[in-house]
Amino acid sequence: MAAPHTTPSLPNSQLLLKRTPPRMPATVVLLQMCHNFQEVRQIHAQFIVSGLLSRPPNAGRLLDSYVSMSQIYYALMVFDRMPSPDEFAYNAMIRGLMGYSPYDSLLLYNKLLLGGLTPDTYTYTFVLKACSRLEAIKEGKQLHCQVIKAGVAPDSHVHTSLINMYAKSGNLDSAEGVLAECSQENVLAINSMISGYMNQGHVEKARAMFEKMGVRDAATWSGMITGYTKNGMHAEALALFQDMTMFSGSVVLANESALVSSLSAAASLGALDQGRWIHEYICWVGAKIGVTLGTALVDMYAKCGSIDCSYELFRKMQERDVVTWGVMMSGFAMHGEARKCFQLFDEMVASGTRPNEVIFVAVLSACSHAGYVELGHRYFNQMVHDFGIRPSVEHYGCMVDLLGRAGRLAEAEELIRSMPENPTPIIWGALLSACRIHKDLRRGRWAFRNLMQLEPFHGDRYKLAGQMFSNAGEKEEADNITRFIKENELETTRGTSFIEIDGVVHEFVVGNTDHHRAKEIYRMWEGIN
Q1: What pTM value is reported for the model?
Q2: Do 336 and 370 meet the contact criterion of CB atoms below 8 Å apart?
Q3: Which strand (E) or helix (H) includes residue 325?
Q4: For residues 94 and 410, what is the distance between their CA atoms, to the nearest angstrom?
Q5: pLDDT tens digits, 100-152
Q6: Checking DSSP bridges between strand 496-501 and strand 504-509, what pairing results, if any?
Q7: What Cα–Cα distance (Å) separates residue 452 from each residue in 30, 134, 432?
Q8: At how many degrees (to 10) do helices 218-230 and 187-199 cross?
């Protein structure tokens, strides 16, 4: 028989009264022990009934608890009713708003100054993070001046935040200037500079700084691995992850960011063996597989061709967010299992998870690849009318691709003409691709003219148009386009394939014979023929 449902109860206040010093009310101690939003609300009610909320420190503590639970509405409600918030209350509220509305964090900081309060290092750190998110370089420089006037020591967290702010805004010279003020042993500041270099694409500078470091912590390795992944250097990211695990001993263990980035690199390369090895490492070190890491594992197995392992992990996850559902649906769509994608969509909606724009891109892509035109129309209308999601360029692109693959080019043209905004290259590219398949020169020329206006030197667009004319027997026009590509030295994407052997990923590009074992490969090929 199932156990009766009981409402979560707070720790026994009578027991706490015996252990609590007289100056600290038991209710305040209970607030520090809360683990979820409902418990904080219960304490909030007790504060009101007992009159404790009117005492200066308690409102700030309650506000901080709401921020920790990401309940910004309730935090603001408490803050707005405080007659004279102190620095602690302001810091908690600025920190809370930073992730939801960084601009409001800056406004609140100005209010703190106008109220005659003095910012501390926590205040500066939170406000600088808000400037970083907004890329508000002007406000960040003003804050830097205030930090200097306040005499804040160079090796504080404030200077790490300054480096982040300058680097995020692309002002690397100023970031380097702040770093020069810090001691050489300040690993936090150096980590911030490495991340700044990586975010701006200065990979070699980041690597040089990394190599010079005498002490590296988990964040150092993570910054490099994540930076390589963001810059599309997936092989380098995996190589560095292996260096970390094999040569740094057991002192430094990979953090979640490094693990997620390494899994993303493996997924991008289709390196299943390396992805499995990372999974084994995660289990070996006992890392907690939460939503983010679990989603990365599901994505890796799906993109590396092991859709069954991906789905098995998905089912084992105790907690999923909308990204997790989207990754699994995209995996099924990628593997041509459209029906499973649709079943998962229905299951997600039934579970109470509201689909977002990305979910419908996955579902519409599944419809496109499977040729389910009517079902695609149904999901598109459901997205607009049932969930109130405004169609984006990606959604229209999926619909044009769906109609184009099915040969319904007249409907695709009608949909493009009905778009509320001007079509982008994604839309025209999808139509041109469909016209190439179905040899529709009239609509193909229409799409190509618009593409030339939007992307006059995009080699792949000209290459696609040339193929369309060639397929339709228009040899002269196809030759003209080929000549135009050569004369203007336009770059075109060449076919690429990857193969993984003994954990090493080998890349092959059309027209490139530079592989270090090319002679052996061609010799083997001749032997087969």
Answers
A1: 0.79
A2: yes
A3: helix 322-334
A4: 54
A5: 899 999 999 999 999 999 999 999 999 999 999 998 999 999 999 999 999 98
A6: antiparallel
A7: 66, 34, 12
A8: 0
Q: Tell me the DSSP string of 361-403.
A: HHHHHHHHHHT-HHHHHHHHHHHHHTS-PPP-HHHHHHHHHHH
Residue 292 CA to residue 286 CA, distance in Å, equals 16
Residue 401, exposed/middle/buried by CB under 10 A (0-12, 13-18, 19+)?
buried
- Sign of the alpha-carbon torsion through 351, 352, 357, 363: positive
Which of 149-163, 236-250, 343-357 tops mean pLDDT?
A: 343-357
Structure confidence at residue 505 (pLDDT): 67
| Residue of higher predicted confidence among 122 and 21 | 122
Alpha helices in 182-289 (DSSP H): 187-199, 203-212, 218-230, 234-247, 256-269, 272-285
Greater pLDDT, 11 or 214: 214
Q: Is 501 helix (H, G, I), strand (E, B) or coil?
A: strand
Residue 1 clears pLDDT 50, i.e. is over it: no
* pLDDT tens-place string over residues 342-356: 999 999 999 999 999
Would you say residue 11 has pLDDT above 60? no
Residue 204's Cβ-count burial label (10 Å; 0-12, 13-18, 19+) is exposed
* Structure tokens that stand for 420 in this block: 């509320």
In three state form, how does the secondary structure of 28-97 look? HHHHHCCCCHHHHHHHHHHHHHHCHHHCHHHHHHHHHHHHHCCCHHHHHHHHHCCCCCCHHHHHHHHHHH
Q: Which residues on neighbouring strands pair with residue 507, listed in sequence order?
A: 498
Query: 364: which 2 tokens?
Result: 């519409």
With 80 as the cut, is the pLDDT of residue 501 above it?
A: no
Q: Is the pLDDT of residue 10 over 70?
A: no
62-75: b (≥16 Cβ within 10 Å) or e? bbbbbbebebbebb
Helix axes 157-168, 121-134, angle to 10 degrees: 10
Q: What does the block give as tokens for 360?
A: 């419908």
Phi, psi of 46 (to 5 degrees): -65, -35
